[in-house]
Design brief:
Immunoglobulin-like; Glucose Permease (Domain IIA); 6-stranded antiparallel sheet; globular
């Protein structure tokens, strides 16, 4: 059960963009207690605003357009269903050339390492912490132009790979990286593709990931405040140059980080 949190008129919500890779912000109406919401088998983040409760639902890139349903339960109340619609989104194509062919076609020993690391990564991205949230106003994690946006259909050396699951911020090596929101470091390591990477848990299935770092200034178990430095931009892992790859996972799926920078 989530802790009761008094509704506030100051809460910022991410931009409502109910498409594959987007976020659906669903008005659940006024309630005396925080609703418990599920999307399929997954728990969903809820927070109050202006005396009402809102569900903030992450929609994976694999979603298809069409109607969807949330299951809403409130202490002492009758379970109900809330429907919403997922729209269509076509993402652009990006072609990248890597000199290190091993980063495109890994060796057998690399594949074993990648499989082990994938379990750690998925465990972190799907982590759930019961924590009341009152605001989703994000700091930008690093200063610099956006070099690759979320959702791009990617080709490495003309070979198709998974869509881009984050937002790339081009910045010189050593540029500070800060936490966009209060959170806890739940995982850190040097991964084959992602390089030096940190994971922050912000509560209720909202997890952020920071890849290709030059250095990490925090470690698992550390609590960080919004705007606090957590590392520096680098070029570790599979990269074409220094940059920060920043991902946002919501109820276990990657969503467009820009929706949280546009919080209203």
């Amino acid at each position: 059960m989530l802790l009761l949190l008094p509704p506030t008129s100051l809460a910022a919500l991410p931009r409502h963009d109910p498409v594959p890779g987007g976020v659906a912000v669903i008005d659940l109406g006024p309630e005396d207690h925080p609703p418990a919401v599920r999307y399929g088998e997954k728990r969903v983040l809820v927070l109050p605003r202006d005396g009402r409760w809102y569900a903030v639902v992450g929609l994976g890139l694999q979603e298809k357009p069409g109607p969807r349903t949330l299951e809403v339960r409130v202490e002492g109340g009758t379970p109900r269903r809330v429907t919403f619609e997922i729209g269509h989104r076509e993402y652009e194509t990006q072609r990248l050339t890597l000199k290190n062919r091993r980063m495109v076609n890994p060796y057998k020993k690399d594949l074993d390492r990648i499989a082990r690391e994938r379990k750690r990564i998925l465990s972190a991205l799907r982590h759930w912490q019961e924590r009341p949230l009152s605001d989703l106003t994000f700091f930008r994690p690093a200063e610099g132009p956006l070099s690759s946006r979320f959702g791009l259909r990617r080709y490495f050396n003309d070979q198709p790979r998974k869509p881009h699951s984050g937002l790339d911020i081009a910045a010189p090596r050593g540029t500070p990286v800060v936490a966009p929101l209060d959170g806890t470091v739940i995982e850190a390591g040097d991964f084959f593709f992602n390089g030096r990477t940190l994971f922050l848990d912000h509560g209720q299935g909202l997890v952020t990931m920071y890849c290709h770092l030059e250095e990490m200034s925090v470690r698992p178990g550390d609590r960080v405040r919004a705007g606090e430095p957590i590392g520096r931009v680098g070029s570790s892992g599979r990269v074409t140059g220094p940059h920060l790859h920043w991902s946002v996972s919501l109820n276990g799926v990657m969503v467009n980080p820009e929706l949280f920078l546009d919080a209203e």
